Amino acid sequence: MFQKKFINYLLISALLFLGSCSSKTEQTIKPKVVISLDRLYSEAQRKFEEGSLQEAIELFEMVEKDYSYTEWAAKSLLMRAYIYYEAGNYISALTILKKFKTRYSGDKNIAYAEYLTAICLFEQINFVALSQEPTTLALRQFEKVIQNYPKSEYASDAKFKIDLIRDQLAAKEMYIGRYYAKRNKWIPALQKFNNVLKNYENTIYIEEALHRLVEINYAIGNIPAARKYASILGYNYNDTDWYKKSYNIVEGANIPLEKAKQKKSLKERLKKLIQIQ
Predict the structure, then answer these.
(1) What share of the chain is helix, strand, coil (3-state, %, to 5)?
(2) Is residue 57 included in any domain, yes or no?
(3) What's the rounded Cα separation, in Å, for the pair 253 and 246?
(4) Alpha helix locations (H) across 104-185?
(5) 11 occurs within a structural domain
(6) Reported pTM
(7) Is residue 160 located within the same domain as residue 179?
(8) How far is it, in rounded angstroms, from Cα 96 to Cα 80?
(9) Longest dimension (CA), the chain
């Protein structure tokens, strides 16, 4: 009896062992097929040009992982960042750019990475009434591009973007200043308009800031200060409507204002777009 049970036990153990071996054989992981670098990168580029962005991202990621020891890994990382930028996914683009700058700080395309970082921040600039943190970050990043890569092809555009950003920051000061002025809160309004004079004298808002200072100082009875700012406005911008408005206030005159010109510069159109009356 004992012998029979022992034989049955051996048979069951053998069957379990064979089943285990069969299961392991079925679960054997097949070796990964490695696509050649040329073919993989070319396919990723083709998908990008066709507009299949997600497929392109995945293929460029494969290049980065499978050929991390080549220069194409760095290029693939930059391509992924650019694709995310093109798609408007600036957060993902900035994350990848940070990785690129950390891992490939000596790469020949580092200037481009810094510039694209600034552009991603620039694209997130909000309306003047909202937080201006992205504006400040973009300004610092563009200044970094100019400082570190003054002879690069990106420096010129960085300077142009800085002008627009400083206009944006001045616009925020003007927005808050107008808000206070309309509520007769003269002291904080004066502080905001004086800040524009001090820190943003080369922006499109300098003329209006001077006029607002004339208005407020005249309203609170500080006539000498009103005349001083009107004189500054007249000396530098005597052919503008802002000066004529200021002159009418301090002199009690009624100089007619010119009609708006048909053609406007890029900065003037920007000002019209974001100005709050």
Answers:
(1) 75, 0, 25
(2) yes
(3) 10
(4) 110-122, 133-148, 155-182
(5) no
(6) 0.71
(7) no
(8) 8
(9) 127
